[in-house]
Amino acid sequence: MILSILFAGLGQLYNRRFMKGFTFIIVELAFIVTLLESINYGLWGLRTLGTIPGVDHSIRLLVFGVLSLIGVFFALSLYIYNVVDARNQARKIQNGWKPMGFRESMRTFYDHAFPYLMTFPGLVLMIFVVIFPLLFSVLLAFTNYNLYNSPPRNLVDWVGFENFVNLATVPIWQDTFVSVFSWTIVWTVVATTLQIGLGLFLALLVNDPRIKFKKLIRTILILPWAVPAFVTILIFSAMFNDDFGAINKDIIMPLFGGDGLPWLSDPFYARVAIIMVQTWLGFPFIFALFTGVLQSISKDWYEAADVDGGSRFQKFRHITLPHVMFATAPLLIMQYAQNFNNFNVIYLFNEGGPPVRGQNAGGTDILISWVYKLTFDTNNYSMAAAISIIMGLFVSGFAFYQFRRTRSFKEEGEI
């Protein structure tokens, strides 16, 4: 173990594990020769974000710094594994174990390490597709990267928790964040609950044995799901137009008179409209999901309830609803998480409008669409990253808590 601490692989050579020892030696030499200088430069850039305006590019240095952190993590993991492996091998040798031959070592390696070798490319891909952007966004939230601090002309500086403090203390940020966050919660709960409730009601209705033409009705109710969502949203956006939309011109004005309702110019009516649009978009999937679950419930349960004199409501409460929720609870939780970050319907319907006085977000903007505007319209990247962290923590905490309360993460023997 001491030899492996001094230089990776020496402990394995001392234990007569020559192939593993030479592998560790080659890996450490390659790291020292090819990556040590680059990682040192990346860590310097991560610490300083550059020192010379116009020469040092702070964001590029931040990218190199994140890559350096990932490289250091891999290097430390291999180094620790090398030390632990040497210690374990030494203990086995002290207990009378003899090193295996080359063929036997290769066979044992294949039996135990093959699954890890097959999953390693996926792990590397996940690191650079998921973890790297996540780390970059998290670090960006602690800088002052915006339109006025953009490299290479200007340097970006570390500002700590200043962006989070501004969200809580600066009036325009505070008012906008509270308003947008509150509407995001209302939007998520109301829109998702309505689409789930409508889907469940229609599934129960179609599953009733007294209903005729079930196949035709199911086909019609699934049709909104078959149409691309962005096409449906754009059509509804035109239908809800204040001036020439069919909702005002052909329905409200002929029946009630007046000029119709300000669907796109008043925040309240715009929110009502967008909730109705999401309910229309979301209920077909819930309907199809519940239909399959309802057909899998044994009729013996209902027959036993009839014998005991159970009412329709009692059968729904004690038989239908528990079976449906047991089978679909994780998917329903994902519906809430998905609508919390449902950017498409918000942006395509009216781009988050209408404008609200005293705020830098629109009346129907949710957190994700507000982050989009901060990033691409005002180039306030650091504040957008700070809000993204809050969003991620909120959604992750909610999903983790709900999943732990369901049986979706329990092993079969624990249920």
TrEMBL record:
<dbReference type="InterPro" id="IPR000515">
    <property type="entry name" value="MetI-like"/>
</dbReference>
<feature type="domain" description="ABC transmembrane type-1">
    <location>
        <begin position="181"/>
        <end position="402"/>
    </location>
</feature>
<protein>
    <recommendedName>
        <fullName>Maltose/maltodextrin transport system permease protein</fullName>
    </recommendedName>
</protein>
<keyword id="KW-0762">Sugar transport</keyword>
<feature type="transmembrane region" description="Helical">
    <location>
        <begin position="61"/>
        <end position="84"/>
    </location>
</feature>
<feature type="transmembrane region" description="Helical">
    <location>
        <begin position="185"/>
        <end position="207"/>
    </location>
</feature>
<feature type="transmembrane region" description="Helical">
    <location>
        <begin position="381"/>
        <end position="401"/>
    </location>
</feature>
<feature type="transmembrane region" description="Helical">
    <location>
        <begin position="21"/>
        <end position="41"/>
    </location>
</feature>
<feature type="transmembrane region" description="Helical">
    <location>
        <begin position="219"/>
        <end position="240"/>
    </location>
</feature>
<feature type="transmembrane region" description="Helical">
    <location>
        <begin position="268"/>
        <end position="290"/>
    </location>
</feature>
<dbReference type="InterPro" id="IPR035277">
    <property type="entry name" value="MalF_N"/>
</dbReference>
<keyword id="KW-1133">Transmembrane helix</keyword>
<keyword id="KW-1003">Cell membrane</keyword>
<keyword id="KW-0812">Transmembrane</keyword>
<keyword id="KW-0813">Transport</keyword>
<dbReference type="InterPro" id="IPR035906">
    <property type="entry name" value="MetI-like_sf"/>
</dbReference>
<keyword id="KW-0472">Membrane</keyword>
<feature type="transmembrane region" description="Helical">
    <location>
        <begin position="319"/>
        <end position="337"/>
    </location>
</feature>
<comment type="similarity">
    <text>Belongs to the binding-protein-dependent transport system permease family. MalFG subfamily.</text>
</comment>
<comment type="function">
    <text>Part of the ABC transporter complex MalEFGK involved in maltose/maltodextrin import. Probably responsible for the translocation of the substrate across the membrane.</text>
</comment>
<feature type="transmembrane region" description="Helical">
    <location>
        <begin position="113"/>
        <end position="142"/>
    </location>
</feature>
<dbReference type="Pfam" id="PF00528">
    <property type="entry name" value="BPD_transp_1"/>
</dbReference>
